[in-house]
Amino acid sequence: MTGRSRRAPLLAVDILGALNVVGMLVAYLSVSTLLPAAFAIGYGEPVWPFLAAGAIVGAIGIALARATRGDRRLGVREGFLVVALTWLAAAALGALPYILAGDPQLGRPLDAYFEGMSGFSTTGGSIAGNVQDLPYSIAIWRQFTQWVGGIGIIVLALAVLPRLRVGGRQLLEHEMPGPEIESLSTRIRDTARRVWILYIALTALLFGILFALGQSGADDEMTPFQAFAHALTTIPTAGFSTKNNSIESFAPVTQWVIVVFMILGGINFALMYRAIVRRQPRAAARDEEFRLYFVLLALGALVVVMEIWTENVLPGGEAFRDGVFTAVSTMTTTGFSVANYNGWPTLALMTIVGLMFVGGSAGSTTGSVKVVRHLLVGKLLRREIDQTLHPEIVLPVRLNRQVVEERTLRAVSSFVLLYIGIFVIGASVLAIDAARTGIDLSVLDAISVSASMLSNVGPAFGIGGPLGSFEPFSDFSTVVMTGLMWLGRLEIVPIVVLLSRHYWRNI
Q1: 308 neighbors 345 (Cβ within 8 angstroms)
Q2: Do 460 and 452 contact (CB within 8 A), yes or no?
Q3: Gap between the Cα atoms of 426 and 356, Å rounded
Q4: Which of 239, 365, 404, 434 is the S-S candidate for 458 at Cβ 3.0 to 4.6 Å?
């Protein structure tokens, strides 16, 4: 003993406060099972799996909230923990109806949890090999988990749980991620309400258009059920479909409509609100990320179209439609497909993988790196080159004529490095495990699966391609892919922060 007493470091995180919020969020979220329950009643299918799942999860949420209640003010630290735990709990809720229903394709708990995480993370990769055999109620539950996961969970939390305060803003920033979210209002609840209204309006508009196409005879495959199901997964750029071949069997006019709404889903919702509701279209025209978003979409589509056309994979009209659809679906991380691109030329496949790392705008429902980060990295590289030639010059990085803080630039650089590192680790682990278990998975396939899961795209190449499923992968690989989806949806940083010793301790 030195005579100097040692005190155990105090926890810097209010764990009970975070669990209290998670409990309330889960309780509110459990109400979502009422929608598939209504479909089960309408189609004469068992309703009890949904009611039981909602009751179980709701009871657990309420019990957790009551057991941890108290007068607490949550901050940024608690916000990270709430975000991470909420998505794990949401995936469990998504899995429970599959398990209770005993569906032969999704009945195993691990497979069900993968499907639940894929739903709420809006990834769109599926364990189910034949989704057309799923009951209507189960099928609509898959679709609805993606709609709720798009913006719904966090916006709902911000609207009904104002006590989140700073933590609430942290939740919003990681649900609509990017280096900086442009607030529509100084009040969190106002921002949540306006984003929520826009989200619902776009979904309703798409449903109305798809419904009209079906009723008018323009697309005989587009029944009211299909219109509703695909409206639920297009706006959140999610990608689950109720058909084995995704969007391929629908009419070309339907495919073009979905292209338009996938593009809309990839735009910053705050910017879209200003342009449409506040009638400030010039705000969008002046936004650097908005302009680059469309440039990258056009370039990606051009490369894919020209490659499959010039290589005689498809004739001109089909090559244009399939190439544009695939490029838009991949870059916006939606994951719908209109063709089996496994057999496309190498350059087209490389372009598709590249687009997986682009993503849409910050403040959109898309996953991946996001266009604004690519934009800032490009500006950083240009500054480094200029300062190499002229060391004495001071060149602040500007975005939309505003100086970007050095702290933000460091955060962007760190995120990109983390993203690449986790992608490489994921691809390596999947390739090694595939070799160990004898799964036919090439290096390119492993790369595409890791990129697709981390970027929340969904379909990859090979057995996990647009006409396949992830069922052949081992349980270990399934856990790895589930983790990649979770990391990708939360944009890595909250999880990395939770692993830091300094996060948990005051000293």
Answers
A1: yes
A2: yes
A3: 15
A4: 239
DSSP three-state, residue 356 = helix
Enter the tokens of residue 306.
């020209």
Using alpha carbons only, give the angle 249, 250, 254 rounded to the nearest 5 degrees: 155
Question: Which tens digit of pLDDT belongs to each residue from 157-169?
Answer: 554 444 444 344 4
The shares of helix, strand and coil residues in the chain, as percent rounded to the nearest 5, are 65, 0, 30
Structure tokens at 314: 């498809």
Dist. CA 87–CA 291, nearest whole Å: 32
Residue 372 makes CB contacts below 8 A (sequence gap 6+) with: 178, 179, 289, 361, 362, 399
Q: What pTM was estimated for this model as a whole?
A: 0.91
Identify the three-state secondary structure at position 399: strand
Contact assessment for residue 180 and residue 408, using Cβ atoms and an 8 Å cutoff: yes
Average pLDDT over residues 196-222: 94
Query: What DSSP line would sit under 48-101, residue for residue?
Result: HHHHHHHHHHHHHHHHHHHHT-SS----HHHHHHHHHHHHHHHHHHHHHHHHHH
pLDDT at 325: 97
Round to whole Å and give the CA distance between 492 and 299: 28
Return the higher-pLDDT residue of 333 and 2. 333
Q: Cβ–Cβ contacts within 10 Å for residue 469, how many? A: 19
Q: pLDDT digits over 84-118, tens only? A: 898 999 999 999 999 999 989 999 999 999 999 99
**Do the beta carbons of residue 359 and residue 331 sit within 8 Å?**
yes
DSSP three-state, residue 402: strand
Token pair listed for 461: 């190449």
User: Do residues 9 and 43 make contact, with C-beta atoms less than 8 angstroms apart?
Assistant: no
Which residues are 11's β-sheet partners?
A: 505
Q: What is the DSSP letter of 403?
A: E
Averaged pLDDT of the chain? 87
- So what's the pLDDT on residue 472? 92
Tokens of 504: 């948990």
Tokens matching residue 267: 């735009």
Two structure tokens written together for 235: 């706006």
Give the position of tokens 């005190």: 7
347 CB-near residues (< 8 Å, 6+ apart)? 303, 307
Helices (H), 102-135: 109-120
Residues 298, 444, 464, CA angle at the centre, nearest 5°? 85
Structure tokens at 45: 């299918």
CB 21 within 8 A of CB 74: yes
| Beta-carbon contacts of residue 492 (< 8 Å; ≥ 6 apart) | 415, 418, 419, 422
Nearest C-alpha neighbor of 66 from the set 76, 77, 58: 58
**Length of the chain measured in residues:** 507
